[in-house]
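Changelog note: in this version the structure field was regenerated for every chain. One regenerated record is shown below for reference.
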Amino acid sequence: MDKKMELKLIELRRDIHRHPELGNKEFRTTSVIEKFLSQAGIVTRRPSKTGVVALISGTKEGAGSSRVMALRADIDALPIAEKTNKPYSSRTTGVMHACGHDANTAMVAGAALLLARRRNEFAGTVKCIFQPNEEAAGGALGMIRAGVLKNPVPDCIVGIHVNPWLKTGTLGVKAGAMMAAVDRFTIKIAGARSHGAYPHLGKDSIVIAAQVIQSLQSVVARQIDPVDPAVVTVGTIQGGEAFNVLAGSVTITGTVRALNNKMRRDIERIMRRHVAMIVKAYGAGYSFEYESLGRPLENSAKVLSLCRRAGSAALGKKNIVEIEKPSMGGEDFSEYLRYVPGCFIFMGARLSVPHPWHSELFDVDERALAKGAAVLEEIAVSYLLGK
């Protein structure tokens, strides 16, 4: 990639970073992506109100014309007030790109431009998906329902994400389960109010909730095989109206993480049993809602092999990093994998002082943008040429 192209990707990333938009509100971001791609003669369409799909079709005749490879980036920001004090810091109060989706977008857009330059070298099509609303969950599913995996149907899909912990210029790959399923639970305890001086006349929802929370912490610790990663976290508890009144109701919310669907079902079943038994012991009522926000992300061995080979060609074999442990974080890229085989990869973008995803100080080494675009270009061309 020439220096001029590299600078274009940096400016695209900074433009999007200055003007972050939350999920399903990425109207400006969508327009910026469309304009950027149209300058290279790339045709785009909007499958939904925000988000973009771009098609780059090869002009080479012969075998491979029916092959379709999809590349995916997410485009939404987070409700976080930025504190990086960079010249390109967010100009939108309380919103920032604290997860690097601006960089992900620049990498896929860069790959699209590189591929457009090489149309005459391959047959087949590359479909670039710029997806809204990854952070709030539902973005991938919404795009799928809007037909993003049709016309043409991709044979496989690759998603890329910057990683603040990996050395810039390295590619992080992992076989098998890579990221956890994300579930959300809401438990509402229905007790009975009474004066705090006469607790025996009521049913104390706070005491019941405390017992429930304590019990939930034993689900993973005592009822799940310790070699199987799982998480049950209580995130909020709300209840009570006055210092001298027993709370009539309490609402508890939290998240469950697991690396396979069987464990998700097992944990939900055990949690429901715990809650039912505790609430019954106090003679109170309750409701229990359990919602799936994302499936486990498990990479296809075949597509992973393609990414390793192409990554080695683009960056050098020494810069391929094998990630040993799965993450208990979630990623709705997993929704695409229900329909087509695929692989999720990390592009190293570590700064001298790195900050974690979702930090108000999060930033990336922008040298990673050109490298990520080059990796995606190589992956797509390798697939279309049958390498």
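Spot check on this record: The chain has two domains: 3-179+296-384, 181-292. The mean pLDDT is 97.
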